[in-house]
Amino acid sequence: MDARDVGTLRVMTYNLRGLRGDVRALVDVVRAARPDVLAVQEPPRGWRGRWRLRRFASRTGLRVVVGGRGARTTALLVVPHRAVRGASAVRMPLTPGLTRRGVATALVDGVRVVVVHLGLRAEERARHVDLVRRRLLHGGDGPLVVAGDLNERPGGPSWGAFGAGGLLDAASVVGVDTPTYPADVPRLRIDVVLADARLAVLGARVPDEAGAGVASDHRPLVVDLRLPVP
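Predicted structure:
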């Protein structure tokens, strides 16, 4: 797959585990995939974490368009030549005793990209999916992509709720059902790119090079989408 054609958009979703693992391997995996958009879950946190994320972005040929503060457990990185508008972070409601989560979003070359990292508890996931659907997926400002770590298998309530909103599991559209977690011996498919029908799915893959098995506790998902003709 090669998404450098201006008529396509390559979206990669990747849980970076706070850059606590093999950062060189992470950089190599991302650089090999050559995404236009990198939807990040578990970016490094705090002021030093924001600096580390910017450095990581620079090493992969990307720039941070959303990171830190309200984005919390998410971030959004984009290649310099893609136009970005309306970049923002949305803080999710806190569930006492659990990690406070956030959502990163921006309009990238006319596509509304929303990055999510859902929690481990089903009831929290349901509340956050409902909030994302109500606040971020009804703007009429272009085709939609939701990318991230759902912490849930296909067929679960979160997948169903996004599907009811018209979003398709891009990997399954092209017959890809490759698990992404855990990275060393993947068994579960919990990382996803969901796209609406205005974006044709050209291809999808889960990188399987050696570095992908050690860089993080997740493997990434890479999807190529055809942009609609203006």
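Summary: The first strand starts at residue 8 and ends at 15.
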